[in-house]
Amino acid sequence: MDQRLEVFLKVIEKKNFSKAAEELHMTQPAVSQYIRSLEETTGVKLLERTNKYVRLNKAGEIVYHHAIEIKELYAKMNHLLDDLTNKASGSIAIGASYTFGEYLLPQIIAEAKEQFPDIKPTVTIGNTTTIAGLVLSHQLDVGIVEGHFKGVQELKTEPFAEDRMFVVAAADHPLLQRTKPIKVKELIEETWILRELGSGTREASEAVFKKFSILPPSLMHFSSTQPIKAMVEAGMGISLVSEWAIQKELRYGDLKVLNVEGLPYTRDFSIVTRSPFQTKALSAFLDLLKNHKELTDFKIL
Questions:
Q1: What pTM does this model have?
Q2: The pLDDT value given to residue 85
Q3: In the chain, at which end, N or C, are there fewer CB atoms within 10 A of the end residue's CB?
Q4: Whole-angstrom Cα distance, residue 167 to residue 178?
Q5: Across the chain, which distance is largest between two alpha carbons, in Å?
Q6: How far is Cα 255 from Cα 187, in angstroms, rounded to an integer?
Q7: What is the rounded (10 degree) CA torsion for 73, 79, 82, 85?
Q8: At 296, phi and psi to the nearest 5?
Q9: Strands 47-49 and 119-125, how do they pair?
Q10: How far is CA 67 from the centre of its chain?
Q11: Least trusted range by pLDDT, from 3-17, 203-217, 285-299
């Protein structure tokens, strides 16, 4: 990788020429020379610099964005070359949407570390749209998501496990006394507690609304599943959630599944990648993921 880009990235990270020079074991004039050379090559100024700050201008933002991608691709290239002769090792940048990332991924990573102690996974949790974007920009090696995202032809999406989703309510909800299945249209006046736009769980909820032709007037929104479960448990509404997210609450009786006609709703967990090449570390992790016994055997109802 061009050392001028490395120096440029370090200056932006440290927001200071002196601190960047210290981190890179260079003199400050040497750092300044690298930045000047990069600006001469690009033909534009990249930084606004005063005695108090160093920050990117518009041209600098463009170079910074692409320099990050170049750095990631360069590291990936070196990993692939190392893999020609070495065992599974090195870093894996893994992204996961909230349901999979919070309730399934920790155990899988623990097993991966046990089987392949030399791999070094880092994890980013976000909604489906965010994770897909990070894979697209080469900031993640792999994403594990639920739901769909449109217009991203560069990404390869591979379903690998099924997820079932149920409507849950507080343990004392009156509808739990019903002996016959509840029709979805009977839930229209309930307060529905949903995830934010862009999440796979929100997409699933809207798919259920569309399938049964309902549009609940009372909605609440949260950016993760944990506060949604807390609100449902407190009797503030109902929600459609993954079976993986409610194991503990069902076991202790804090939440109950409503017997709703036409449910559970089924969706896929999918693996999202961009590069056709995989390091041994990534390949080993994906093999473990696709063949994980709990993902194929587990059912709550």
A1: 0.67
A2: 64
A3: C
A4: 15
A5: 79
A6: 17
A7: -120
A8: -95, -25
A9: unpaired
A10: 22
A11: 285-299
Long-range CB pairs of 72-77, under 8 A, 24+ apart, other chains included: 72/138, 72/139, 73/138, 74/1, 76/138, 76/141, 76/275, 76/277, 76/279
User: Can you tell me whether residue 265 is helix, strand or coil?
Assistant: strand
Answer yes or no: are the C-beta atoms of 236 and 220 closer than 8 Å. Answer: yes
Q: What angle do CA 49, 37, 64 make, to 5 degrees?
A: 60
Counting Cα atoms < 13 Å in the Cβ hemisphere of 10 gives 21
Residue 143, class by beta-carbon neighbours within 10 Å (0-12 exposed, 13-18 middle, 19+ buried)?
A: buried
Neighbours of 89 (CB within 10 A): 17
Q: Classify residue 148 by its DSSP letter.
A: -
Structure tokens given for 214: 């309902």
- Taking the C-alpha atoms of residue 198 and residue 128, their distance in angstroms, rounded to an integer, is 6
